[in-house]
Amino acid sequence: MLQLRADVTPQQIKDVESAIRELGLRSQLVIGETAATLQVIGDETDKDLHVLAGMQGVEKVTPVNAPYKLVSRRLHPEYGLNGHTKVVNVAGVEIGGTSLVVMGGPCAVYNRQQVLETARAAKEAGARIMRGGAYKPRSSPHSFQGLGKAGLEMLMEAKQETGLPVVTEVLDPRHVELVAQYADMFQIGTRNAQNFELLREVGRSRMPVLLKRGFAATLEEWLCAAEYIASEGNMNIVLCERGMKTPFQSSENGRFNFDIQAIPAVKALTYLPVIADPSHSTGKRALVTPIALAAVAAGTHGLILDIRREADGPIIEYVKDGVAMKTAYCDYEQALTPKELETLAVAAKAVHTAMHTPV
Ligand code: PEP
Ligand code: MN
């Protein structure tokens, strides 16, 4: 890591960057609130970075051998140690800092009317970003897999009507370019949390990324996944805790266990914002609100929630190749109604305000 002088010039930065390239390494400039650093990307094992110490504009050289550096709080003194975070801008909605952003929408996109009505309801209930899957990672290949491009078009239409930015999952590196044309934020799902080629591909884009934690990932593995995105130059990353698989899962206890302590723990390790998905962690409507509020108390920067229309039932219609079809509504049991979202959003705001009010 190279700490740069406060009065460093753009030309001096360029010179240092090219000296780093000559060592066979790459670098990433990170500009913080009070200072800037150049993080070295690549294996530093046999390199002598101290040769850079005499260069103009360089304050200090600290060789670092850590599995993640770009997203590390310890290595970014410019964010300080007081919980300041990067603020990620998703088409005008800022995630991070002291704000609390609620995101909501259907688990999956099935038809135009469903998406439009759910988006409208989510907005009215307090959501500022809309979610919805056009590509669905289903455990069984026989389950509904998403409408793909047609689903992205429906999300775009809902965005145009409501003004809500869209977060949607990308499953395959080959779809990154297409999804980027419609969405405002990529979602990397828990099953792809260590799909390194996919992480690199969204890293080459500059669009914000919502990175779910692998359901068996340690905090280090989670941050290394973020590091893959960052090392391609995309620092617009928001982490999302979405529950761990434990030996104690049952229909009463929920699909996964929300790792509440991961929120303050990961915030101590990184300056990236962290949000919570109590829908996918619990898998049960009755558990969503209490876990969401606990996550706010634990310091999350946002909530992402599955929402359905009041009248939706467990079966929903869609059209495939011009043929009308019916299928089971994905994750129906965990979806909140708009009314439930509204109640939750009000309570979440109260908890968040209490957390930020000095006593
Ligand atoms: C989702 O949010 O639609 C989803 C599939 O979540 P996860 O990857 O956390 O299971
Ligand atoms: Mn889902």
State the end-to-end CA separation: 38 Å
With helices defined by DSSP (H or I, 4 residues minimum), what is the helix count?
A: 10
- Ligand inventory: phosphoenolpyruvate, manganese (II) ion
Whole-number total of structural domains: 2
* CATH homologous superfamily (4th level) name of the largest domain: Aldolase class I
Residue share in β-strands: 15-25%
| CA-based shape | globular
Mean pLDDT over all positions? 95
Parts with pLDDT < 50 across at least 5 consecutive residues? none
> Number of DSSP strands?
16
> Major sheet: size, sense and barrel closure?
8 strands, parallel, barrel
What do these coordinates show?
- The protein folds into 2 domains: 60 residues, Phospho-2-dehydro-3-deoxyheptonate aldolase, domain 1 (Alpha-Beta Plaits, 2-Layer Sandwich); 268 residues, TIM Barrel (Alpha-Beta Barrel).
- The protein has 10 helices and 16 strands.
- The protein has an 8-stranded parallel barrel with strand order 7-8-9-10-11-12-13-14, surrounded by 7 helices. A 4-stranded antiparallel β-sheet has the order 2-3-1-4, with helices on one face.
- Strand 15 and strand 16 form a beta hairpin.
- 46% of the residues are buried.
- Bound molecules: phosphoenolpyruvate and manganese (II) ion (MN).
- The site of phosphoenolpyruvate has 11 residues, from loops.
- Phosphoenolpyruvate binds next to loops.
